[in-house]
């Protein structure tokens, strides 16, 4: 008979969705009318059809905690992209996307608590130090020696459940292959294939040029 999008029944606000890795959405309900042929009576019921993502005031969607935008038939060229945003109190938040010509996307972001996160191939976010450990820089001391003393790094260490190369591999593996048996050998194979196999991961010449230009490296 009718349908309505119940925006007043949203579970979380936009900021809460980002913090909880949730989708900014509202329930879609359909009013159906049933006809009892024996009695001739009609009854109406509201049927929940599902949660429909809502567009924010800036024209984006928040899906599983990540802010997305729908761009029809337009694919960003390989390279690295930066965005500076703000939280509710005006604190600067940073996001970055590393888009290859072929392979897994890397999406970095900071939150209001100065924790540095990464999403690997659009999976759920995890502390960036987990990825760093999985790439072979295992301990806090080694990471600090490479990147220096940094407040965001210290805050991320506290959020990171891993403390070594092997633990970092397994934490990353749980995000990439949820539900599969944990194995260091399997995790090493996945990471090697995902980032160090030219057949599966490639920035291409355009991506490498733009990446180096952003970081002021010579091509």
Automatic annotation (TrEMBL):
One of its GO terms (molecular function) is ribonucleoside binding. One of its GO terms (cellular component) is DNA-directed RNA polymerase complex. Its EC number is 2.7.7.6. InterPro entries: DNA-dir_RNA_pol_su2, RNA_pol_Rpb2_2, RNA_pol_Rpb2_2_sf. One of its GO terms (biological process) is DNA-templated transcription. It is an enzyme of class 2 (transferase). Residues 76-216 form the RNA polymerase Rpb2 domain. Coiled coil: none annotated. Keywords: DNA-directed RNA polymerase, Nucleotidyltransferase, Transcription, Transferase. This is DNA-directed RNA polymerase. It comes from human gut metagenome.
């Amino acid at each position: 008979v009718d349908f309505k999008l119940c925006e007043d029944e949203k579970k979380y606000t936009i900021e809460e969705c980002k913090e909880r890795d949730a989708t900014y959405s509202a329930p879609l309900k359909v009013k159906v009318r049933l006809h009892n042929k024996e009695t001739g009576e009609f009854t109406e019921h509201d049927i929940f059809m599902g949660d429909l993502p809502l567009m924010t005031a800036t024209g984006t969607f928040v899906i599983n905690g990540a802010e997305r935008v729908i761009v029809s038939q337009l694919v960003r060229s390989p390279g690295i992209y930066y965005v500076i945003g703000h939280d509710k109190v005006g604190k600067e938040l940073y996001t970055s996307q590393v888009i290859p010509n072929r392979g897994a996307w890397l999406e970095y972001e900071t939150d209001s608590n100065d924790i540095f996160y990464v999403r690997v191939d659009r999976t759920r976010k995890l502390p960036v130090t987990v990825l760093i450990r999985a790439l072979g820089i295992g301990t806090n001391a080694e990471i600090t020696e490479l990147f220096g003393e940094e407040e965001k790094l210290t805050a991320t260490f506290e959020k990171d459940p891993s403390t070594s190369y092997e633990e970092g591999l397994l934490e990353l593996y749980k995000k990439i292959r949820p539900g599969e048996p944990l194995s260091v050998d399997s995790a090493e194979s996945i990471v090697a294939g995902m980032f160090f196999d030219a057949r599966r991961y490639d920035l291409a010449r355009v991506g490498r040029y733009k990446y180096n230009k952003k970081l002021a490296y010579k091509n």
